[in-house]
From TrEMBL:
The gene is LOC111482311. Belongs to the aldose epimerase family. This is Aldose 1-epimerase. Its EC number is 5.1.3.3. It comes from Cucurbita maxima. Beta-D-galactose binds at N114, R115, H216, T217, Y218, D282. Pfam families: Aldose_epim (PF01263). Pathway: Carbohydrate metabolism; hexose metabolism.
Length: 383
């Protein structure tokens, strides 16, 4: 715009020194071109903001694709023990399918991930009513959470020494019933040839609000189209779970995993005791490392013997939700492959579920003085 004003000034200055009609004609033609170009530029810029695209980051053998629809991880290509590359996350071939998705494949969910009981909570004496989208409860931010909106791309550097993409989303006061405007950013960076770091930040612009973001990628270390993850070996560094009722709402109690199918303190096959549960795993673990502002510590390690791939997940969040894709049924994914239950597992680091309704859980309230800062580190290796 500045450029436009300057050009008009220049042309006007030149026009003042002109005399002939022909030159006046040239002046108006020039002015017209400048206006047309500026108008085109503005339209183009606003179009670009709303455009949904696919973006790729590459470093060494690691390549990760994203879309700004839901700040979603679309694919992760990493080598197996023989150096063969496979895509180890579930997903779709087209953006249209992501827009129609009900599984949250690869997306960042929010404003509050997981369940909020009764789709309501009270904060500073005010009752907030949310959209109920799972029975009487709110799941993953409501019917149109952060996984179902277009994020802006504020930085994109495909390769080089610090490949990164930064998405941002401005959530409005009252969106899905949540209080206050909120500015959210998600920064995905390849910090090494085999490490993806995600930093999720949120700033409350006017009112305090609960914030709990979760990265909802479905991992299958054998490849997205290799079948189920029941033989993956899993270790979770959490010795307690937040016990839930039949609707998967926390009762408020924390219980030891000892002697239960939830015990993954030592590496165990995911499928070793899954039959003892009605559908599979869908549970929040209280991580033993507690909470820290900046420090990331190991939350979980997954190992697939067949491919030799290992994924380590580190975080500064207090909990991790283990979900084994229990409700996936006949979902047509990439390359036409049809995903079924237990085709992948999710390790969604986050605050405890329904924390807004449980004063004994670590607070998820974000204020203008206390911003949100959630770090995840994904380390890939193969042997
Ligand atoms: C959208 O999802 C519905 C139900 O899951 C499915 O029947 C339909 O074919 C999907 N449409 C597209 C364009 O993928
Ligand atoms: C939802 O709440 C209503 C009213 O309290 C109750 O009758 C109904 O059983 C609840 N439904 C579920 C799925 O919990
Ligand atoms: C994104 O995160 C990386 C790694 O932590 C950091 O080096 C980089 O400065 C961040 N980018 C922005 C724009 O904040």
């Amino acid at each position: 715009m500045l450029l436009f004003i300057r050009s008009v000034k220049q042309i006007w200055r030149r026009a003042k020194s002109l005399h002939s009609l022909a030159n006046m004609g040239k002046f108006f033609l020039g002015l017209f071109c400048v206006i047309a170009l500026a108008a085109f530029g503005i339209a183009n810029a606003s179009e670009k903001k709303r455009e949904i695209g696919i973006f790729e980051l590459k470093r060494g053998d690691l390549s990760v694709k994203f879309t700004n629809w839901g700040a979603t991880i679309v694919s992760v290509l990493v080598p197996d023990k023989h150096g063969k590359l496979d895509d180890i996350v579930l997903g779709y071939d087209s953006i249209r399918e992501y827009q129609n998705d009900t599984t949250y494949f690869g997306a960042i969910v929010g404003r509050v991930a997981n369940r909020i009981s009764g789709a309501k909570f009270t904060l500073n004496g005010v009752l907030y009513k949310l959209i109920a989208n799972e029975g009487n409860n709110t799941l993953h931010g409501g019917t149109r959470g952060f996984s179902d909106v277009v994020w802006k791309v504020t930085k994109y550097q495909k390769s080089g020494s610090s490949p990164q993409i930064v998405f941002s989303y401005r959530s409005f006061d009252g969106e899905e019933g949540f209080p206050g405007d909120l500015l959210v950013t998600a920064n995905y960076t390849l910090i090494a040839n085999n490490q993806l770091k995600l930093t999720m930040k949120a700033k409350a612009l006017n009112k305090p609000t609960p914030v709990n973001l979760a990265q909802h990628t479905y991992w299958n270390l054998g490849g997205h189209n290799s079948g189920d993850i029941l033989s993956h070996r899993l270790q979770i560094f959490g010795s307690r779970i937040t016990v839930v009722d039949n609707y998967l709402i926390p009762t408020g109690k924390l219980e030891s995993v000892k002697g239960t199918p939830y015990d993954f303190l030592k590496p165990r096959k995911v499928g070793s005791r899954i039959n003892k549960l009605p559908k599979g795993y869908d549970m929040n673990y209280a991580l033993d490392h507690g909470t820290g502002e900046e420090k990331v510590k190991k939350a979980a390690v997954v190992y697939d013997e067949k491919s030799g791939r290992t994924l380590e997940v580190l975080t500064n969040a207090p909990g991790v939700q283990l979900y084994t894709g229990n409700y996936i049924k006949d979902v047509k994914g990439k390359g036409g492959f049809v995903y079924q239950a237990h085709a992948a597992l999710c390790l969604e680091t986050q605050g405890y579920p329904d924390a807004v309704n449980h004063p004994n859980f670590p607070s998820t309230i974000v204020t203008s003085k206390k911003p949100y800062n959630h770090i995840m580190l994904f380390k890939f290796s193969a042997k």
